[in-house]
Amino acid sequence: MPETPSEIDVLRAALAAAEARAAAAEEELTQARAVVSASDAMIRHLQLQIAKLRRDQFGHSAERHARLIEQLEMQLEDLETDLGQDRAKTDAAAAKTTVAAFERRRPARKPFPEHLPRERVVVEAPTSCSCCGSARIVKMGEDITETLEVVPRQWKVIQTVREKFTCRDCEKISQPPAPFHPTPRGWAGPNLLAMLLFEKFGQHQPLNRQAERYAKEGVEISLSTLADQVGACTAALQPIHDLIRAHVLGAERLHADDTTVPLMAKGGTQTARLWTYLRDDRPFAGGAPPAALYHFSTDRRMEHPTRHLAGWTGILQADAYGGYNGVYDAARKPAPALSALCWSHARRKFFELADIKATAKKGKRVAEDISPIALEAVKRIDAIFDAERGITGMSAVARRDARQRQVAPMVHDLHEWMRAERARMSKHNPVAKAINYMLEEDGRWEAFTRFLDDGRICLTNNAAERALRGIALGRKAWLFAGSPRGGERAAFMYSLIVTAKMNDVDPQAWLADVLARLPDIPVPRLPELLPWNWQHSPVAKAA
Q: Which of 14-18, 21-25, 60-64, 534-538 has the lowest mean pLDDT?
């Protein structure tokens, strides 16, 4: 008879089984922790994305969400670190057990665009079996690994050949006409010109830096030659700019704003201005395409916006800068424009007095330097912003009706509360100054509340500020405008490039196609080249 296991062997087997179950349970617990960490990290990541998207979409809430975004970023960093630790523990435990290690599911990478050309590189196939060495192997399929690569820019010279023919009867010479260039005495193709313009005005790369880069690529073009082509392109694109200008000034409502531009002058630089007038009917479901018009001036006098908007009437959304008063003048012909002031500017004055984080950075005691009245004002204004977000994109009538129901009572309460608080303050109180910005001057509160009765009016002027954001960033690259004409030329090109971007059109591709088609297109068909009507027509290649 076979020998029965001893009691000691049975106990050892039971102990080993218990240890295996414990190890497996520990591994499963570690995996569960890793799963929880991954889920938490994903949740925080999505929350962070949502917060950033809201900030980008609603510029007026950027300040309010700044602290939230920073907090989410810190939380996400900690959760990602925790996840790394949990994954390391899971891998170590999996090596000791038969339980499969936890693998975090990462988001699947989007496939590369189909329009990109594919270059097939076939790795040399084996000639024999890697196991037994037999040569009797047959192909059963293939695996493809895609790698995104970029080809350095290539320059080429297009030779347009025009053959000559002579008549044997009359000896008349016949020859096709020479091709039109986008610019007079031109030598540059439309794609080169579009790249030159977009990099200078869209990417803020001065011509001298472009010339240096071209020279390193083996193509030496002098700075004066590049500048000559920029000037010629500006003249060639004038008809398109005129159409955009007419479209912008045909709006019933405009956003307006300005920013500083350093201008080269004797002995240094002077502060010039770049103005923008923006048409965007999308917030009230208007059918007109968006467009932007820019102007340059050497100073900020009232005469400039008055001249820019000569003959235009409608609703002008801007800040409370007094330079626009000429546009609002009751004696203005054909009629005065109506003022609609920006609530983001008003909120900003209160927020600066209620920003806990900024106060703490200055080394001040928060409890003493944060105004509870300013904080309450920010909360009340934020409630108005929250209600306003829900009606963006509705028709003008629907927006007006919703505002009368939801927003008007909050605006009325805010007005009464501010008047009561200001009556108890000294006129030198910073909060009183913030309140006076909205209430002190005649007609100021009416301009702030005009949006309640007109659904076309936006609560803020953030659209114009966004149109100037790129210029503010570009100042660090191009430093200053070389002359007033240079500033005017920059404003001209900004009008084209920003309008293209607002219509989701690639500015460089659009400029290249427009420059290629302008010499041959009849005047009545010029509107076909506007960004919102544009359909790409590839430039003909040389034979």
A: 60-64
Is residue 163 classed as helix, strand or coil in its secondary structure? Answer: coil
Torsion angle of C-alpha atoms 450, 451, 456, 457, degrees rounded to 10: 90
Q: CA–CA separation, 407 vs 402, rounded Å?
A: 7
What is the amino acid identity at position 147?
T
**pTM (2 decimals)?**
0.74
Q: How many residues does the chain have?
A: 543
Taking the C-alpha atoms of residue 359 and residue 367, their distance in angstroms, rounded to an integer, is 10
| Beta-carbon count within 10 A of 197 CB | 23
Residue 167: CB atoms within 10 A of its CB come to 9
Judge whether 468 and 411 are in contact, CB under 8 Å.
no
For residue 362, the Cα-to-chain-centroid distance in whole angstroms is 31
- Sheet of strand 315-318: strand arrangement: 291-297, 268-279, 253-265, 315-318, 338-341
Domain spans in the chain, listed from the N-terminal domain onward: 15-94, 190-322+462-543, 343-460
Q: 455 near 395, Cβ under 8 Å?
A: yes
More confident residue, 181 or 238: 238
Q: Can you tell me the distance from the alpha carbon of 204 to that of 201, in angstroms, rounded to the nearest whole number?
A: 5
Q: Which residues pair with 338 in a beta bridge?
A: 315
State the Cα angle at 461 between 259 and 379, rounded to 5°.
Answer: 120
Residue 410's nearest CA partner among 288, 236, 402, 109 is: 402
**Digit-coded pLDDT (tens) for 322-380:** 899 999 999 999 999 999 999 999 999 998 888 755 555 555 554 445 678 998 999 99
**DSSP conformational letter for 455:** T
Handedness of CA 238, 240, 246, 249 (dihedral sign): negative
Strands 253-265 and 268-279: antiparallel
Q: How far is CA 528 from CA 510, 533, 538, in A?
A: 12, 5, 15
Query: What number of other Cβ atoms are within 10 A of residue 262's Cβ?
Result: 16
- Residue 448 in contact with residue 459, Cβ under 8 Å? no
How does DSSP assign 244-287, residue by residue?
HHHHHTT-SEEEEEEEEEEEEETTEEEEEEEEEEEE--GGGT--
**For 385-398, how does the pLDDT look when each residue is reduced to its tens digit (9 = 90+)?**
999 988 988 999 99
How do residues 130-145 score in pLDDT, each as one tens digit?
888 888 888 888 888 8
How far apart CA 417 and CA 424 sit, in angstroms, is 11
Neighbouring C-beta atoms of residue 381, cutoff 10 Å: 24
**What confidence score (pLDDT) does residue 445 get?**
95
Phi, psi of 229 (to 5 degrees): -70, -35
Q: How far is CA 455 from the centre of its chain?
A: 26
